[in-house]
Specification:
By secondary structure, this protein is mostly beta strands. Helix content is 5%, strand content 54%. It folds into 2 domains: 112 residues, Immunoglobulin-like; 73 residues, Immunoglobulins (Immunoglobulin-like). It comes from Thermus brockianus.
C-alpha cells in the first residue's frame, strides 16, 4: 500500500515540466483517508499534496495551517495532519491551498462516518486432511480495505480488490482466523473451526 501513495506524486512531477499559465490556482489532492470513510470519534490521519509552478505558500485544513515552514515556497509539497472525527453527524474536510502569487483553491471533501464493521460470510467449508478450504466473502457498507488470515502469530494478507464486497478462497488449518478491516479502520474476525 505504501508504494501506491507515490503514484499521484509521480504524475505531478511529470506535469511539473509542462507549461502552465501562472494565473491558475495550485493543484490540491488527498492521498488519505482512502475512500473518505472514518470511524466516528476516532482520530484519523490526513495526507495530501499541493503543486504549483510558482511555489505553494500555504495549505490550510479546517482553517488551520498544516504546511511546515520548510515546505513553504516549494513547487510540490506534502502535508500530513490528524483530524478528530465527531461521534455523530456529517463531517466535511475543508482544505485550501494558496500559491506564491496569491491564487487560491478550495476543496471540500465529505467524509462518511462509518461505525459498522465489515461482515465476514463463510459460504462453504471443505475439510481435506488437516486443512480447511474456506469459500467466503467480506461485505462492508463503504469499502473493504484488507482481509488477512491469522495463523498463530503470523498474518498473511489476501490479495483482494478494495470494494464493498469481495470474495475469497483460502486453505488454512483449524483455528485460523480471517480478519477483515474496512476503509474506516473498523475490523471484524471469524475463527475457522
Amino acid at each position: 500500500m505504501k508504494g501506491m501513495r507515490g503514484h499521484p506524486l509521480l504524475l505531478l512531477l511529470f506535469l511539473a515540466g509542462c507549461a502552465r499559465p501562472d494565473g491558475a490556482p495550485p493543484e490540491l489532492g488527498l492521498v488519505e483517508p482512502l475512500g473518505g470513510a472514518v470511524a466516528p470519534g476516532k482520530a484519523l490521519v490526513v495526507e495530501g499534496y499541493a503543486f504549483d509552478p510558482s511555489g505553494v505558500a500555504s495549505v490550510r485544513a479546517q482553517g488551520a495551517e498544516v504546511l511546515g515552514e520548510a515546505e513553504k515556497g516549494k513547487r510540490l509539497v506534502r502535508f500530513r495532519f490528524r483530524l478528530q472525527a465527531p461521534t455523530s453527524g456529517e463531517v466535511e474536510l475543508r482544505m485550501e491551498a494558496v500559491d506564491a502569487l496569491g491564487h487560491r483553491v478550495e476543496r471540500r471533501v465529505p467524509l462518511v462516518l462509518d461505525a459498522a464493521p465489515p461482515r465476514i460470510v463463510l459460504e462453504r467449508l471443505e475439510r481435506e486432511g488437516s486443512l480447511y478450504r474456506v469459500y467466503g466473502r467480506v461485505e462492508d457498507n463503504v469499502r473493504v480495505d484488507r482481509v488477512v488470515v491469522q495463523m498463530g502469530g503470523r498474518y498473511t494478507p489476501l490479495s483482494l480488490p478494495k470494494e464493498a464486497r469481495v470474495s475469497f478462497l483460502v486453505e488454512v488449518p483449524s483455528g485460523a482466523v480471517v480478519v477483515a478491516v474496512d476503509a474506516a479502520g473498523n475490523r471484524s474476525s471469524r475463527r475457522i473451526p
